[in-house]
Amino acid sequence: MTDFLFVRMHHFSFRFGTKVLLAFALCLQAGSLSPALAQTGQQPSAMRDGQHDFDFNIGVWHTHIRRIPDPFSDPGTSVELNGTVTVRKVWGGRGQMEEIEADGPNGHWEGLTTFLYNPQSHQWNQAFIDSREAAADAPLIGSFHDGRGELFSQETFKDKTILLRGVWSEIKPNSHNFEESYSNDGGSTWHAAFIASLTREKESAPSDIAAGAVEISSSPENDDPQHGFDFDIGTWKTHSSRLMAPLTGSTKWVDMDGVSIVKKVWGGRANLAEYKAEGPAGTVELMALRWFNPTTKEWNINFATPGVGTLGVPGVGEFKNGRCTFYDYELIGGRSVLVRFSIWKITRDTAQSEQAFSDDGGKTWEVNWINKYTRISATS
């Protein structure tokens, strides 16, 4: 984590791999018991639907922050910052995007947080990206009880693994508090590391990424990798062809047609995309987040499906000759498989991407998803 702010207040890159296969499986298995419950004969207990628990968070807020750099050894030393938190609904209300700006004695800092609701577990997860490191931390996961939200994760602090707890409390129409605490004894005791009070400035955030809003850069293209995906901003008619059973020798493909909407967020350092398509295999919906790392000059990509509502492990890639190719490892059929996702511009109004798997460490590749995009609209 960054030395400046040890804190976690917390496409177009649709990699149609393990998570999508899982989404199809969940659709097919909806209403059935898990194997463990089937063996015990127990019925799952009714869980509270918490998809609106973070509705209070929407808007523009002034925040006063007190950060304790070493909550275990020196809890009396702190740094104070003041800033603005802007929160919008995304993906048709399934999630939220939070942009944070703060100033303190060490300068200016910015962060981006994505909140997503998992309808399977009835839990929220919060993934944070720091503007200086541009690396996604492990998400905090949890739920609300009695008007208080508690999300948990783990982190490394001074080379030791600790637990993290994020708590939203004192929630009122125009104010609320957030506190992140660390525990090095398995949760027996907690030490405050980050304390924020938020006071509402506006009921809603500016509409620059409101539903249906799209844009395309009017500036000429250049070699700056941060602007490599400017061509992708807008609304696209999307035709997808998917290999139904990759890495099995199957040659059965299915076609899907839909729409993709790609929007700039976080001052252009990231993109948010929403995809929906239908075909013989059913309906697929995805949200993708793609962000730029100014240190490595690389892009990261991550996505979620509505049935899972959780961002996975991000892929990492860079532009070469107008084409950005991302790589990561995923579990396919219980095996770790190398995944390659590439996207490139053909003309101003057409683009293409494809996904491929390799089960021999990249010696050979099998393409399993091809997407062809035709621009529907864009605004400058």
Shape: globular
Give the mean pLDDT.
Answer: 84
Work out the helix count: 2
Largest sheet: 10 strands, antiparallel, barrel
SSE string: HHEEEEEEEEEEEEEEEEEEEE
Distance between the termini: 36 Å
Report the count of strand segments: 20
Number of domains: 2
The CATH superfamily of the largest domain is: Calycin beta-barrel core domain
CATH C-level class of the largest domain: Mainly Beta
Residue stretches low in confidence (pLDDT < 50, at least 5 long) are 1-44, 208-221
Helical residues, percent:
under 10%
Tell me the strand percentage band. over 45%
Instruction: State the CATH architecture of the largest domain.
Output: Beta Barrel
Describe the structure.
The strands form 2 sheets. The protein has a 10-stranded antiparallel barrel. The longest helix has 12 residues, at 18-29. Helix content is 5%, strand content 53%. The protein is built from 2 helices and 20 strands. The chain has 2 domains: 55-205, Lipocalin; 208-377, Calycin beta-barrel core domain (Lipocalin), CATH 2.40.128. The model is unreliable at 1-44 and 208-221 (pLDDT under 50). It is mainly beta.
Quick overview of this protein structure:
By secondary structure, the protein is mainly beta. The chain has helices at residues 18-29, 35-40; strands spanning 59-67, 79-90, 95-104, 107-118, 123-130, 140-145, 148-157, 160-172, 175-183, 191-202, 234-243, 253-265, 270-279, 282-293, 298-304, 315-320, 323-332, 335-347, 350-358, 366-377. It has two domains: 55-205, Beta Barrel (Lipocalin), CATH 2.40.128.20; 208-377, Lipocalin (Beta Barrel), CATH 2.40.128.20.
